[in-house]
Amino acid sequence: MKFKWLIMTLAIAFLISFPPVASAHSNNSEGFSKIDVEGQKINYNLQLDFIELSHAVGFKIDEQNVENLEELNNIITQNKLPLQEYISTHISVYADSIPVESTINQTSVLKIKERAFADITLSYSVNKALESLIVRYNVFFEDSDPSHANMAKVHIGEKQQEFIFTYEVRELNIGEMSFFTSAKQFLLLGLKHIFTGYDHILFVISLLIGAMTIRHILSLVTAFTIAHSITLALATLEIVQLPGKLIESAIALSIIYIALKNIFQPESNHAPWIAFAFGLIHGFGFAGILAELHLGATHLATSLLFFNVGIELGQVLIVSLIFPTLIFINKRLSYKWFLPSVSTAVLILGCVWFFQRAF
């Protein structure tokens, strides 16, 4: 009996430990870079999570009230000098191996995926047309968020290149990144996205709770994978675009539905069509990062493929860890208490996410 209550307590504590935030992807801050080299000028459009930027630079803001973009615009304008200093010391640009200084031309605040982002336009002047460009990026990594990732798109002449700045990879050298380096970066980005996408993980776990055979597991995972791969591609290719608030709210509703089904129909296994239907919604959620990057046609297929492979590898790892655990619990204990207890915790968290995202 003591063992039963210990397992139940640990399971519920694990589930409610997921951050109940408006977006389940917001624990690891994101950034976007667009670098254009035009003759003797380098234009750099930098977009950074505003709350994370406030931590790094020292803006004083009310983190619970970041809906007033006009107020945030005033804050970033008033802090232009410390912002310039921060960028100058955390982003280094070398034109033909010669360091060049940045100038902030314009700042504003905009919404990306329902979050406030600082939109900063930088310029760098050089003496001649460039043959090589090196960017060393160290924003947030050491001072506020080691898990930060910045998706960069670079245009230099006729060349376009996509790159991801991470804690482990902080330097971009135009012309030196191989196909395998690019593929590895997007694969790791997919892995990171699934492991920090707590809502996606919770949905998959809830599906697995009702499945006790490998064949059933494979049918659910396959249906979910096919569905989210379809909408991931459609959203990244900008064929189908849906509001981020709608998608995030629908993902929360998918968790609520599965939790309710586990509570009131515990003997009814989830059908693959349910996994497929909700997988279509989750695919739009997966596409958020790639859609914002606006990948060029040259590297789009590769980036999309390996990002999706990363998601699938992460999903396989999650299933491989969770399924044996469920089998162990089923053999040692009765599902009569375990399923409703865990599903109730999932239901509560799904409701919290839904109300935070929808209203």
TrEMBL record:
Keyword presence, Amino-acid biosynthesis: no
UniProt keyword list: Membrane, Signal, Transmembrane, Transmembrane helix
Stretches that traverse the bilayer: 186-210, 217-240, 271-291, 303-330, 337-355
Signal peptide start and end residues: 1-24
Pfam families per record: HupE_UreJ_2 (PF13795)
Record-given protein name: HupE/UreJ family protein
